[in-house]
From TrEMBL:
UniProt keyword list: Hydrolase
Alphabetized InterPro entries for the sequence: Amidohydrolase, Aminobenzoyl-glu_utiliz_pB, Bact_exopeptidase_dim_dom, Peptidase_M20, Peptidase_M20/M20A_hydrolases
CDD domains reported for this sequence: M20_Acy1L2_AbgB (cd05673)
Organism of provenance: Bradyrhizobium algeriense
Stored NCBIfam families: amidohydrolases
Protein name: Aminobenzoyl-glutamate utilization protein B
SUPFAM superfamilies, per the entry: Bacterial exopeptidase dimerisation domain (SSF55031), Zn-dependent exopeptidases (SSF53187)
Residue ranges, annotated region (Disordered): 452-472
Amino acid sequence: MDNRSNIWRGVDTIKPRFVDLSDRVWAMPEVCYTEARSSAEHLAELRHQGFRITEQVAGIPTAVMGEWGEGGPVIAFLGEYDALPGLSQEAGVAEPRPLEAGGHGHGCGHNLLGSAALLAATAVKDWLAEHKAPGRVRYYGCPAEEGGAAKAFMVRDGAFDDADIAITWHPSSFWEVVVTPSLANTRADFIFTGRTSHAAASPHLGRSALDAVELMNVGVNYMREHMPSDARVHYALLDTGGIAPNVVQAHARVRYSIRDRDLPGMNELVERVHKIAQGAALMTETKVEMKIISAVSNLLPNTPLEAALHRIMEELGPPHFDDTDKDFAAKIRSTLTDKDIASVYHSIGMEPTDRPLADFIVPLNAKRNPQIGSTDVGDVSWVVPTVQVHAPTVAIGTPFHTWQVVAQGKSPHAHKAMVQAAKAMAGLGVRALTEPDLIAAAKADLNKRTTRTPYVSPLPDSVAPPLDMSLT
Ligand SMILES: Nc1ccc(C(=O)N[C@@H](CCC(=O)O)C(=O)O)cc1
């Protein structure tokens, strides 16, 4: 208790630098693996705070790591700072207003995510220093969560081998421990090559790569009926072969995201999608190459860490929002549909309320109906006991990957939520440092879950971090 209120005061003392960091990163939105400025900002703060620095973790230019302390357990805090394409948006307004046409934006709140994780790591460092306690605290600045799977590459490279527990968080509508699993996910490009020709004078001599992509997508859409209900398959067209209808398209490329509850299920689906692509190539007399871009594992829960974190979050309580916070959140709320709002309440098994911002903790055993995405935190959770906080940075119901998230990304209510997340994370870090039984129980839980199905990286050996994935 004493340790905890002490660490919470520590977070409050140092928070202004990290709120500023979050706002600066918000203003320089950089997508998957292009986070040169954002990672430099995190690196500069790590240096300022006196952490020992590792740059280019796993050979990734925008992955950084800072460590402080000696001996004892290793507590890892995971941060992110990548943005999303096409979500440029002014802050503090409740209407879509891009700052830059076609520009990027922090539509998943990773400006807050990375800064609060670094805030928690720094507060734990200060606590270790003050108590002259053994233990090492690390901050991992992880790029490209939005599809680049940097953490999966960092895990494969051994970056987490000697970490004892990992703690992170994600912006959300709610104040809760994350207990929902996430889906294993592979991103693969299917690159078709045909033969160009005059589409009117000699169509019979051309073989269309675009036709192949269209047939492949139709085939996959027929597969949907026959896949597990939790599986997800979606695609984006990266290359349609050109802008001229009168030139038979000799090249085309489609990027697929293929998800399922676990790796065996996902791998089976990847194989089926690959077969459909081969079928489309056969039908069109084109060639197809499948190129895996990145892949992540499903998330493993960790019961002892979840229980310990929940107790801390209960004690801490949700952030204290004032009337100005609630007024702005209410304006954002008015841009949402009733269905948006009902849908997030449904995910925690609650009936909708009129609250603009969450002022309650979601019970650990709520009857959830989870909306399931994917995250590369999944891979960390297979090798290190891992737990995550959800803190209410957005008006309840705000869907992620939208302008509304970007618009709220620098608001006082988001700042309060990021600080509260940092307090919960730092509180758990100190608890793990002072109660070794917790780490032992967390490790035993992970061992139990992985004895029969040990971790296998979802990344084929030949696949390197797709540093140019955003430039294609
Ligand atoms: N608490 C969250 C964690 C992840 C995401 C998310 O959107 N992740 C991407 C990343 C996918 C991936 O890593 O494969 C996705 O699901 O499409 C959203 C909220």
